[in-house]
Amino acid sequence: MAENKTQPTEVSVEDFLASVEHPQRRKDGLELLDMMRRATGQEAVMWGPTIVGFGSYHYKYSSGREGDAAAVGFSPRKANLVLYGLTDGPDADRLLPELGKHKTSTACLYINKLGDVDRGVLAEMIRSGYHHTMTEVHTP
Questions:
Q1: What are the backbone dihedrals phi and psi of residue 112, each rounded to the nearest 5 degrees, phi first?
Q2: Longest dimension (CA), the chain
Q3: How many CB atoms lie within 10 A of CB 45?
Q4: H or E, element range at 33
Q5: What is the CA radius of gyration of the chain?
Q6: Model pTM?
Q7: Which is nearest to 19 in space by CA: 10, 8, 30?
């Protein structure tokens, strides 16, 4: 079975964020770094070349595929900020309408800029998503 492409790396999170070309994405990335550190109590780790992750968990699908992933994280992409692990928790359906301007997909939350969302709601989503992943999804 193929190994996951997105693995933890030794790359400096701060160096990665400093290299983000778009000034608003870079600024928002630094703010998200601080917000996620506080909400999770974890230090950031680069997962692959572009994902800043906090905490990790092991998953195993019924198909037999298994691996490790960041519990929550983000990536300052060219088009928007992509946040991972925030839409699966039990509070997500209640909090998303209060968040502000955003889009979602199956597993991701997309924000154009942090100024478009309520930071208090976002912090609550980070805490909730992290807690859910580490206590409900985590497999030893």
A1: -70, -50
A2: 42
A3: 18
A4: helix 23-40
A5: 14
A6: 0.91
A7: 30
100 Ramachandran zone, left/alpha/beta (phi>0; psi -120 to 50): left
Place of tokens 């092991």: 58
Q: Under CATH, which number does the domain 23-137 receive?
A: 3.90.1150
Give the DSSP letter string of 45-100.
Answer: EEETTTEEEEEEEEEE-TTS-EEEEEEEEEEE-SS-EEEESSSSSTTHHHHHHHHB
Domain boundaries, the chain: 23-137
Query: Tell me: the pLDDT tens digits for 43-88?
Result: 999 999 999 999 998 888 788 888 889 999 999 999 999 999 999 8
Burial pattern 97-127, b for ≥16 Cβ within 10 A else e, equals eebeebeeeeebbebbebeebeeebbebbbb
Inter-CA distances, 138 with 10, 24, 131, 132, 133, Å: 23, 34, 10, 9, 6
